Amino acid sequence: NAGVTQTPKFQVLKTGQSMTLQCAQDMNHEYMSWYRQDPGMGLRLIHYSVGAGITDQGEVPNGYNVSRSTTEDFPLRLLSAAPSQTSVYFCASSYPGTGGSGELFFGEGSRLTVL
Amino acid sequence: GQQLNQSPQSMFIQEGEDVSMNCTSSSIFNTWLWYKQDPGEGPVLLIALYKAGELTSNGRLTAQFGITRKDSFLNISASIPSDVGIYFCAGQKVSNTGKLIFGQGTTLQVKP
């Protein structure tokens, strides 16, 4: 059982380049989300989705786009990379319901460096 | 900005010692959760709390949902080397949204 799979694991970009971080889950979870982790700041929510075709902004959405065309996939797009977007990005999924929606399953992370 | 204050930021303890960390907020949360992150990996859920006052154990770990719904603590008893990692508290303000707010994390190091 693969769980939540993120690709790539490492990426170096130049300022202004665009790229997409891929996230796929095989647990049939309706909820998916993207967080970024920076030293001393914990994890901060970028975007989230409660189902295919439905997305919403989190705490730090600027500079990122998402779409959710299928239950399984939730890609994160950086439109024009900036050094401030250097971070470790985590994709997570969970199932709906009061007892489960906060019980996130995380991928292994994608480490992005913007020069 | 960050709405959960987690303390301490780091701990360096001897194997066998007990550990306590806590998380406070000025806001009310409906769910409190504790996650652990090992180096190079994503966080893994340790304990989830759903009711004010709830006390839940998972092996050597015990966590409580504060009665005011604005705080939570995590205790680890008889620490072992594999307890090393970063521990995060997280809160969900609105149930059934999947949106979590995380604390800054507590880095735990255990000396054998």
Q: What's the overall geometry of chain A? A: globular
| Sheet with the most strands, sense and barrel status of chain B | 6 strands, mixed
**Quaternary class:** heterodimer
Strand content of chain A: over 45%
Instruction: Give the C-alpha Rg of chain B.
Output: 13 Å
**Unreliable stretches of chain A:** none
> Which blocks of ≥5 consecutive residues of chain B have pLDDT under 50?
none
Radius of gyration of chain A over all CA atoms, rounded: 13 Å
Overall pLDDT metric of chain B: 94
How far apart lie the N and C ends of chain A? 36 Å
Beta-strand segment tally of chain A:
11
- From the N-terminal CA to the C-terminal CA of chain B, the straight-line distance is 37 Å
Q: Helical stretch count of chain A? A: 0
Strand portion of chain B: over 45%
Would you list the SSEs of chain B in sequence order as H and E?
A: EEEEEEEEEEE
The major sheet of chain A is characterized as: 7 strands, mixed
Name the structural class of chain B: mainly beta
Write the layout of secondary structure elements.
The complex is a heterodimer of chains A (115) and B (112).
Chain A: E1 4-7, E2 10-13, E3 19-25, E4 31-37, E5 43-51, E6 54-57, E7 64-66, E8 76-78, E9 87-94, E10 105-106, E11 110-114
Chain B: E1 4-7, E2 10-14, E3 19-25, E4 31-37, E5 44-49, E6 55-58, E7 61-65, E8 71-76, E9 85-92, E10 101-102, E11 106-111
Parallel strand pairs in B: 2-11
Antiparallel strand pairs in B: 1-3, 3-8, 4-5, 4-9, 6-7, 7-8, 9-10, 9-11
Q: What does this protein structure show overall?
A:
The complex is a heterodimer of chains A (115) and B (112). Chain A has 115 residues and is mainly beta. Helices cover 0% and strands 49% of the residues of chain A. In chain A, strands 2, 4, 5, 6, 9, 10 and 11 form a 7-stranded mixed sheet that branches. In chain A, strands 1-3-8-7 form a 4-stranded antiparallel sheet, with no helix packed on it. Chain A is globular and about 40 Å long. The relative contact order of chain A is 0.32. The model of chain A has no long low-confidence stretch (mean pLDDT 94). Chain B is an all-beta fold. Chain B is built from no helices and 11 strands. In chain B, strands 2, 4, 5, 9, 10 and 11 form a 6-stranded mixed sheet that branches. Chain B is globular and about 40 Å long. Classes of the chains: A mainly beta (115), B mainly beta (112). The A-B interface holds A 4, 31-33, 35, 40-45, 48, 50, 58-59, 90, 92, 94, 96-99, 101-109 and B 2, 4, 6, 9, 30-31, 33, 35, 40-45, 48, 50, 88, 90, 92, 95-105.
